[in-house]
Specification:
Strand order of the largest sheet: 2-1-3-6-7
Order of helices and strands: HEHEHEEEHEHEHH
Distance between the termini: 48 Å
Number of helices: 7
Number of strands: 7
Radius of gyration: 20 Å
Structural class: alpha/beta
Strand content: 5-15%
Length: 221
Amino acid sequence: MTAKKLIVTPLIFILVLTGCTQKPKVLIIGDSISIGYTPFVKESLSSKFAVFHNPGNAQHTGTGIDSIRKWVENNHWDIIQFNWGLWDLYYRNPGNKNPLNRDKINGKITFSINEYKVNLDSIITVLKTITDAKLVFVTTTYVPENEAGRFQNDVIRYNDAAKEIMKKHSIAINDIYAKSIDIHKQYGLGSDNVHYMKEGYKEISKLIVSYIETEVKLSEK
């Protein structure tokens, strides 16, 4: 009996580990908005997918260019969902007393629309050389009118620019912007803040989960 246990137990352990690794792996790349909803996505998809987020905050497309290989290489990913935008269209003024340097009147934008498009194009070019994962771009969420470092209409312009690049590369687009407006108005942190309460992130996660479950077909990679 003892000998059999010594043989069987390791086999069971190996099978359990193998079962875990058989789930398709999803990597979410994005800023604090994605950091906020990823735990809910992970929980909702736990029976079907293994969901991860890039380490830390993906910030703007400049950070993406510098870090994309480190985040993606040396791992097999089935789906990579990514977004940049809120940091790209952000106006900063180092002389501003605001601790976040937010200043859309006297500040300097992080990346212009053209720079944003060029950066996205570069990131996607790298992604296509280092992974065969199904790529999904998620549009940038709502910017409330009194946000000190961002113009409300810029997010629409940057989303349109991103869609051009995604169509150029035949990348799937999960357009959550319109629905994020109502979510923010109900569960946002106010008219001067792009972030959400816990309930807001949970609502946004449903848009992510629904798209992955119904629209992303791994066989199309």
